[in-house]
From TrEMBL:
Domain ABC transporter as annotated: residue spans: 4-235
Source lineage: Bacteria, Pseudomonadati, Pseudomonadota, Betaproteobacteria, Rhodocyclales
GO biological process terms held by the UniProt record: response to antibiotic
Record family assignment: Belongs to the ABC transporter superfamily. Macrolide exporter (TC 3.A.1.122) family.
One Pfam entry name: ABC_tran
Protein name (record): ABC transporter ATP-binding protein
Amino acid sequence: MAIVQVENVGKRYLLGEQEVHALTGINLSIEPGVFLAIAGPSGSGKSTLLNIIGCIDTPSSGRVSIAGREVSGQTPDQLADLRARTIGFIFQSFNLLPVLSAEENVEYPLLQLRELSRAERRERVRHYLGMVGLSKYAAHRPNQLSGGQRQRVAIARALATHSKLVLADEPTANLDRRTGEDILRLMKDINRKSGTTFIFSTHDRRVMNMADRLVRIEDGQISALGMRAGKSWVF
Ligand code: ADP
Ligand code: ADP
């Protein structure tokens, strides 16, 4: 079963008198375990598509299912639960809470999982901070960390809830080239070892080329679907 199923999705925004078609006729079926890039120029609709897949925005038309559950059929409580347990987010500006330490930021979404005891939460935080190489930085606040370290905290936070699906909106946009590549390699490594599905957006060709599946969007429409074959893409 596909982890993400998008059927004929459209998204329109009203800007004053004018209607903006951010997405038109999007169809996608994403298999579990893939490392997928959504590539396209700025303004092409990448964030809108990720937000709709992540259930933080709703389509104007069409249907979305996540792990076999149709999103529009969920009550608000069910949707909050689906988001908390199934989906992790990584953002270009990291979106960490500035007054919390690295470990408190990773623990934060775990507070929503009521079945976890305090000891179980602590153990998860320890495990995932270790996985991203930040065990020694657990007590640091975001402003005491580099950009790459902040994004590592965000990756640990996205994984700690045992999300099956991690959505990353331009995760390297605020990092220098080498740090961005390190972050992508870390995500890829976790994807390979854990089978967690990663979907990330980028307008950077180098970053895009680290994916094993590619969705190219232009002007709110899919213009190409690619699959990696060795060093090149098959469209
Ligand atoms: P990308 O992530 O590829 O840069 P976006 O998904 O952010 O693209 O935007 C796609 C289009 O939708 C753009 O034309 C953008 O201006 C428009 N758009 C996005 N969000 C809104 C909004 N809240 N209100 C009006 N227009 C929007
Ligand atoms: P070159 O610089 O050799 O002419 P391109 O600029 O066409 O090659 O492609 C650079 C990389 O982007 C290659 O890995 C290629 O497979 C990939 N690529 C080419 N066309 C597209 C496309 N429409 N969408 C996404 N990736 C593409």
